[in-house]
Structure formats: structure tokens, C-alpha cells
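Structure representation.

___
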Amino acid sequence: MSLTPSRVFLFVISCLTACATFSWMCEKAFGPEGEICLSSSGKIPCIRFFTLDEIIGYQKFKQLSAEQESQATEKAIEKAETEQLVKAISTAEDSLRFLTSVANKNPAVISVPGSDRKFWDDIFKEWESLRARKKLYRILHYGDSQIEMDRITAVVRTGLQKRFGGGGPGLVPPLQLIPAYTISQKASLSWKRYISYGVSADRYLNNHYGPLGMIFPFDSGNAQTYITARVKNDSLLRSFDQVKVITGRLNQPVKVSVFTKNYSNSVEAPPSANEQMLLWDWTGKQKNVSISFSGDSLSPVLGIALDSRAGIVMDNIPWRGSSGLTFTSISRSSLYNTYKMLDARMVIMQFGGNSVPYFKNEAGVDHYIKSFTRQIKHIRSVDSTLKILVIGPGDMSFNDKGEMVSYPVIESLVEKMRKACLESGAAFWSMYHAMGGKNSMTKWVGEYPALAAPDYIHFTQRGSEKIAQILMESIDREYEIYRKKKKLNGGKQ
């Protein structure tokens, strides 16, 4: 007799039916434990048989169903508790207290001087009125290599511009040595670059470095730079309608020409003992611009701003290798003049990480904090109305006998930075705590895809986006509190 598929199927079914029938009969006769014991003394071993559940598995299905029912019950209880909590927040005052409590308990909360959220009230009041008043609010984001390539800054910039208006990438150098992923720049070979930080060989002949902390003279009597927005899906980045060129103190006139689609114009900057700003404004949005310079080869250029007419603009100013201790090497007058020209209203200082590996003890930390405090005071002396937000270092790891662990001084550094910032009138955001605190860097490196690089210091692009999103969430929580307070006051704040 040949074995056809149907006969094999019937044979298997018959065997299973016979086994199930036998198990059912045994369970009826000897119980559901699956054992036939002929003696209770244990001298005669019991005979083991498969129970009906072991063959069919209905108890497992029953258990799974029970687990699902339990999960559904837990969700229902959680929903009921949430509804009760919402009902308990019966007044605007209760809601405000609840939001404030949630914000204060979050490890990513932004600390403000005197724990007084009026620090944010002034900021949000300005941000909300920018469109109506057709005003510009510039945020200068200084930092170390963590913000290179427009990382972190770009996410925050886009988030704020979507909420409060604005556009464009902001202030950029005419010569960009490290490419950004948001804009593309091409420059002629005639540019030179001098910086206010780093080795002394890179210093300029004076300290009038301006807002970027850099000076760019050009050789051969002329220079060019071409800038275009790189991110196609970011319409805000690609929609600037103003070009501003900041020149240094000129001994000879400099001619600057701007070319965009369907627009070209030239302006001459005269000799001046102070910095100057040349402005080009047109109808319609642009995504790229070409700028040429001609004049004396020692004529300094301090920066180029691609801005909107109104709203928020945010500049990405990375100082690779810097610990943020060289603001005092830039003249107050240079910063004052250029900040006023550019409508600077807030300064973000993201530093500290480059010093961490070199701290041997608390004395080293104390010395750094003292020097960093001088930088905050220097900026405040330039313009006392400037809002300052300091972002402390993130977690960093080193190899301790084969195990990657956090540097032992980080927690002390972060807390001392927080205290010094608040005492100096600056707000403080702990990137270390926002990441998760001690040994969080190892977790960020271990994520897939990785959120931090194998050097256990720098973020990957994905990690930069995540930490920027956490910062935006912190700002959003403060804004929600502001809105609640404003509602309580009848729309006034």
C-alpha cells in the first residue's frame, strides 16, 4: 500500500487521537498529575504519562488569555487613575502646580537663578510677539566639538522657528573648515582665518574678533564665498530673505557684492574705526547666495548672516578643543557693536567637556569654575540684557581596568557649574543628567543604532538629535508653564 499525503495525515491524526484518549482515561482514573502510582510508600516508582494538557496545550492558551486579561485590567486601572488625576486638577492653579511639579522633578529641568521662572517669562513674552512686531531675536550658540556640523543647534533652531517664526541658518563664517550637514559652503583660496581660542599662532594682530570669535582677512585684493542650504526638507532653513555681512575695523574701503537668483547688488563699506554691518534685503525666499569681496588684503570680515526679517535665528558657533575660557580674549566693544547689529538677545555656552580628562582633583575643577565664571561676567558686561543659558558637559567615560566608566569628577563639575551659573545670573542645563547621569555614556554607545561614538565622548548624529530633542522638551515644559501663568493673569504676563 502506497503512502499518500492523505493517508499520512490520517495516520498522524489517529495517533494523536489515540494518545489523547489514553491520556484522558488515565487522568480520569489516576488524576491530572500525569503519574500512575501503585504504592504510596514510594518503594515502587510511579509511571509517568503525558497529560491531555501536555498534548493539546489548552492550559497554556488559558494562561496566556489570563495574562492578556490581567494586562487589560492594569491598563484600565491606570486609565481610571489618570482620569481621577485630571479631575483632581479642577482649577488653573492646580494645573499650574502640577505642571511645575512635573518639570521640577525631571532630571532635564533647566535651572534658573533664584528658582524664579520670570527668567523665562521675559523670553517667551518676546518670542510670542516677534511676528507681530516684525522683530528679530538672535540666539548665539557657542560650544565645543559636540556642536560641530550644526549638530544640536539645528534641531533646536528648527523647533523654535516652527513655534515662534524665523528662518535661515543664521551667522556663518566666510571660510568654513568643518562642513555642516545643514548648509554647504565653498570659498576661494584667498581667505585667511584667525581665532580667539586655541594656540597663539592662530591669533590676530588685535582682539576685535566679533561674534564668531574669528577674523577672516583675504589675500590678492579679492575673495569669494558661496553658501547654500543643504537640507531639502527643512523649508525654514532654506527661506532666508536677508544677507548681512559684518566687517571688522577697516583702514581701506571694501566692496561687497551679493548674487542670488534674480537679484544682485553691490555695497561699499567705508573705512571705519568700528565694526560695520552691510545689509541686503529682497522680496521672496532664497536658498543660496554668492558673495564676493574686493579691497585691501588686510580688510577683516567677521561673519555672514543669512536671516529672516522677523522671528528667531540661531547661530551655530563651534570652537573645537575649547573649554569656553576665551570669551575674555574678545574685546567688549567688538562684541557690543556686533551683538547690537545682529539683534543678539541670548547666548548659549556649551562647554566643559574638553577639560574633564585633565582634572586630577577638586582643585582643578574649582580653578576651571572660577575661570568660567569670568566668561559669564564678561558677556554680561557687554550687554546686561542678554539672557545666558549654560549647557554643562555630558557624561564621558574612560577605561578603568578594562571597564568603561564615568570620569569621577563629572558630577562635581556639573554641580559646581550649576551653582556658579545661577549665582552669576545665568540659567543652567545639565546635559549629564539629561543623558541619564553616571555611566549613561556606555548605554548611549551600546544603543543600536549607536547614540555616541566609540571614543565615549562625542555623540553620533542620531545622539545629537536625541539630546537636542530632550533640550527642546525642557524648553517646551517651561513654555507650557508660562502659558498657564499667562492664562491665570487674564492673558497678561
About this structure: Residues 235 and 299 are 34 Å apart (CA to CA). The chain has twelve helices and 21 strands. The radius of gyration is 33 Å.
